[in-house]
Amino acid sequence: MTALAQRKIVLGVTGGIAAYKSADLTRRLQDVGAEVRVVMTPAATQFVAPLTFQALSGNPVHLDLLDPAAEAAMGHIELARWADLVLVAPASADFMARLAHGLADDLLTTLCLATDAPIVLAPAMNRLMWRNPATRDNVALLQRRGIRLLGPTAGSQACGEVGEGRMLEPLEIVQALSEEGAGQGRLAGRTVLVTAGPTYEAIDPVRFIGNRSSGRMGYAVAAAARRAGARVLLVSGPSQQSTPPGVERIDVTSAAEMYRAVMDRLGEIDIFIGAAAVADYRPAQAANAKIKKDAETLTLALERTEDILQAVAMQPRPPFTVGFAAETHDLERYARDKLARKKLDMIAANWVGGETGFDSVDNALEVFWADGHASLGRQSKDKLAEQLVDLIAERYHAKHSA
Length: 402
Ligand code: CTP
Description:
Strand content: 15-25%
Mean pLDDT: 91
CATH topology of the largest domain: Rossmann fold
CATH architecture of the largest domain: 3-Layer(aba) Sandwich
Low-confidence stretches: none
Bound molecules: cytidine-5'-triphosphate
Shape: elongated
Radius of gyration: 24 Å
CATH superfamily of the largest domain: CoaB-like
Number of strands: 19
């Protein structure tokens, strides 16, 4: 049995000469036990007839978004739900541009928007189109959202030129997918829970105490953990960030709700990453009705919230626990103190008060664990998250093989 056995794969075929290879790809996927349904863009049908794919896959080929007969049999939403994986091969420059911009102007782009299955693209295009800054930007954007690319490779192209832009061979695509699914990801088979964003603590029905956390770091960590093959639960306070593909998001508002959401799921998780900026204090008593400005001054009594990170780390059998710390001075001393005091496996600390902080796109982290330290230099939170998840995976496996 390979990792693709019984996987439900939507194979998207877009317009390009490499579409002829997709016929072979359909076969190869079935050879390793996958169930394949083919979706073609209108341009793809100019290169290969839908009947070819229908005969090979043994299923009707899906062509139109608004075809009543096709929608009655298996509509685009059902197809999006059915898929364990959406593989687009070949993925043309035009298709990637439409996907990057969230268009839903044909069946395949709509399906990609409506699925929470992982999306993998095997691009194929002329080498100059591949090199074009517009394509480069689209590729970067798609990758940031967790979409994986296989290839392209360099070689002679149908247009007579030689360069990068050739689609991988069907067998290479099947091999790459099999390896991924077989648990090559550093966190495959593990469940990771990430907290992210701020919390809002009610003062009265219309007011709250909050903070400036955007949630960006936590969301980037969740996306990176997902790319590393983990099942990812993201317990998020109010945040404008979009849910990374394949991540299960649980929305909460207050520290108390976040605490409950985490505690309820403790039994399922292998790794806990506390990236949320949880309020340390909340109004001791939230008013039931809107507070009127009758008095000259108003004093709010505050009480401590639950320390979620500490509660997780203090469990009799805690998951691998990672905390964050923001410091304005004596960073290493305070971070190491928190690591020991809260019995954490790892702490990621950053300087605040300067240029970096809650709202910024960039950040830098000093990461500490009992017998080690790593400096992750200033870069985008996405790249930083990738490196942090690498470190977490490494320390997690070191702990469990010890
Ligand atoms: N945290 C938590 N629950 C809280 C408060 C914080 O889970 N009620 C987590 C955060 O998600 C973060 C870490 O704890 O991972 C931050 O630790 P904390 O001791 O609150 O850090 P600082 O706010 O920097 O602490 P201090 O005020 O002691 O400097």
